[in-house]
From TrEMBL:
Molecular-function GO term, any one: transmembrane transporter activity
Domain of life from the UniProt record: Bacteria
Keywords: Cell membrane, Membrane, Transmembrane, Transmembrane helix, Transport
Pfam families documented for this protein: MFS_3 (PF05977)
Name of the protein in question: MFS family permease
Annotated Gene Ontology cellular component terms: plasma membrane
Record organism: Frigoribacterium faeni
InterPro entries linked to this entry: MFS_dom (IPR020846), MFS_trans_sf (IPR036259), TM_effector (IPR010290)
Membrane-topology descriptor: Multi-pass membrane protein
Domain Major facilitator superfamily (MFS) profile: 187-438
Main location: membrane
CDD domains linked: MFS_MefA_like
Amino acid sequence: MSTPTRPPRRPLVVDLSPLRASPAFARLFVGNTVSGIGTQLTVVAVGLEVYDITGSTFAVALVGAFSLLPMIVAGLYGGMLADAFDRRKVALVAAVFAWLSTAAIALHAWLGIREVALLNVLACVNAVAGTMISTSRAAIVPRLLPLRLLPAASALSGIGTGLMLTVGPALAGVLVAGVGFPVTYTVDVVLFSFAFVGILTLPPIRPEGATQRPGLSSLVEGMRFLRRSPNIRTTFVVDLIAMTFGQPRVLYPVVGAMVIGGGAVTVGALTASYAIGSLLSSVFSGRLGQVRLQGRAVNRAITVYGAFVLAFGVVLALTPARQGGGLLDGLESAQPVALAAAALALAGAGAADNVSSIFRSTILQAAAPDAMRGRLQGIFIVVVTGGPRLGDLFVGIVVALGVMWPPLLGGALVVVLIGVVARLTPSFRRYDAEAPTP
């Protein structure tokens, strides 16, 4: 009697099989990554121009706030469109609007129109169109690849996102300082054109199964399906827990000014540490495709995330406060050991969050029936858009109540609440990637 052989261990580095298995996915991935770098370039450049016009940080914050509700609506409506019509056409129409709004932002700069209200409107149109592209693209990917390659595809998407969030803002700073706003926005017009390469070359992708016209009844049916789908619903719940109680980003300015020191340089280093951790976890994600109990992996990844957020809070609590510091202080004012420890904790949090994201995306794409994928992705957009903002509110409330370092409380809450959710959702703990069920 022969002994069954174990499947060979995959390499540690990211699995590139999705790029080889589906040229359509490869073109979509490259087009999305290059155009996404341009999008992040414009997001940063618009903020810089608004600040250049107004001198107000609040005015810069309003650019994102102005787009929040339209983005949520666009995610929900875009999901309904993706479940009713050819997803390639939905993505293509949205890409046209995104490109036109980018071109309009560039044109306004070339004409010297320094009008904040106009920038807010154009940035909002761009964000809405980008949200609809993302919703459609997420529903398209499972039609291009076999289920076994979806974790690798999610990891590749994490690398693409990491490149967008690092290269785009850095490029924006260099270009704005070197050649000004008009040329900077024009670079995005060129980069965003790559999105069309990935979308135009797709085959027609109509939803499989019964379809509904976009509207309230379609949205209600999507919500009813979600209520009957404990595994998919749990992916949303655990993400909300992580982002609501474990998102310390609004503390970075006070950490740089009054605790660790280093001013704005420390703020940038802490922000970059989280992104670098996320990017590295995607680069070394090759073996994640062998994980079958993906629900359990999500629970463990978010528990680790909470532990790293808690560790960040411990670093802050143990670091003596500085007197008279400010955001304009240089890096020489920073406490190097505390900065290194805080950056390491945030890198770990970013890595754990990304691992959770890889499996959560895989579960959503694999377990949802094709005719529901668009609407569920729309609801997912609401979760990922609203969660971090709830996290900002949590930090503000906790500080107002007199708790010195919210990450201490928040990180502990994440660990405890994920344990409670795991106990209450046995089907999620048993979720098997080889037999996906919603």
